[in-house]
Amino acid sequence: MASQPHPSPFLISRLLLLLALAATSHAGSIAVYWGQYTDEGTLADTCSTGLYSYVNIAFLNDFGNNQTPSLNLAGHCNPAAGTCTSLTSDIQSCQSKGVKVLLSLGGATGSYSLSSAADAQNVASYLWDKFLGGSSSSRPLGTAVLDGIDFDIEQGSADNYDVLAKALSQFSSQGKKVYLSAAPQCPYPDKHLNTALQTGLFDYVWIQFYNNKGCDYSSGNINNLSISWSQWTSGVTATNIFLGVPASTAAAGSGYIPPNVLTSQVLPVVKTSSKYGGIMVWNRYFDEMSNYSATVKSSV
Ligand SMILES: *[C@@H]1O[C@H](CO)[C@@H](O)[C@H](O)[C@H]1NC(C)=O
Ligand SMILES: *[C@@H]1O[C@H](CO)[C@@H](O)[C@H](O)[C@H]1NC(C)=O
Fold it and tell me: In what residue span(s) does the GH18 domain sit (predicted)?
């Protein structure tokens, strides 16, 4: 029997390099919501912090059911008066820094639902013409072409969001890819977004681990969060799955994870999934106040 040769120092150093690469491949990104608080600074300033890879403009909170869709961006601009077109240069500034900018549909307040497959197709065409690569004489955010659409569906019927996702993703064939993201609540499966998510068309899924007592972090206990994270990462096909967290205790009713707990206890658990993409922070206003993203960024 031939004796096993000892591995050479060269092989050992290659092996260590590979292990180091495998460890760093789990480095994640930070996504944030911007648009609901006037005092959170501009979109361009948000991107200039260098903290974020994705910014969701929140929200297009009226759409579907044959309504004329409308934006609500707090006091940042007046959609009805057409002053939100000033955001075009901010969006382009973000994109020039490599930050993807998406428009978030839905939110906690507003009037939205998709009454039929045809209604979903109409909303898809509207989003394409008004915010994406299509064209229209009146674009609410001006000429900038957004990177994609975020589904933050929290009310109404779950019907036809799968049709909307398919229709939006088909526009990718006309040029620039249309990224799709979703912000489901942490109880799995999500009652508003499950059918859409099962299309497997979503690039990023940032799960809201807050305001959901059965699965968010509570009183030093990460068991419920950990069980839910496993259900999501095994149940949903998406390029990257993100842990959505409040930026401070004021940002949500429950689920706040102190930065040291996030980095020492929670991230080591969620990073065991190859689908881990990073964290989503709700929202820029509270993040600016708390410095949460800056504090945890090197561990994300
Ligand atoms: C975990 O979730 C269950 C409901 O599924 C709840 O009763 C329990 O209080 C939660 N645990 C913690 C520590 O929040
Ligand atoms: C925010 O956190 C970063 C990283 O820990 C730190 O360098 C910076 O000074 C903090 N900023 C404020 C305003 O506390």
Answer: 28-300
Q: What is the pTM assigned to this prediction?
A: 0.92
Could you tell me the end-to-end alpha-carbon distance of the chain, in angstroms, rounded to an integer? 49
Dihedral Cα 34, 39, 40, 44, nearest 10 deg? 90
294 CB less than 6 Å from ligand 2?
yes
- In this predicted structure, the answer to whether residue 14 has a pLDDT above a threshold of 70 is no
Quick one: which atom of ligand 2 is closest to the CA of 297? 4
pLDDT over threshold 90, residue 122: yes
User: Which two structure tokens, joined as six digits, stand for 161?
Assistant: 């969001």
* Residue 207 near residue 186 (C-beta atoms within 8 A): yes
Is pLDDT at 171 greater than 70 in this prediction? yes
Domains parsed from the chain with CATH numbers:
29-296 (3.20.20.80)
Token pair in block for residue 240: 């990257």
User: Any catalytic annotation for residue 154?
Assistant: yes
* Choice among 40, 154, 190, 216 that is catalytic: 154
Residue from 289, 291, 300 whose mutation best tests the ligand 2 pocket (most atoms within 8 A of CB)? 291
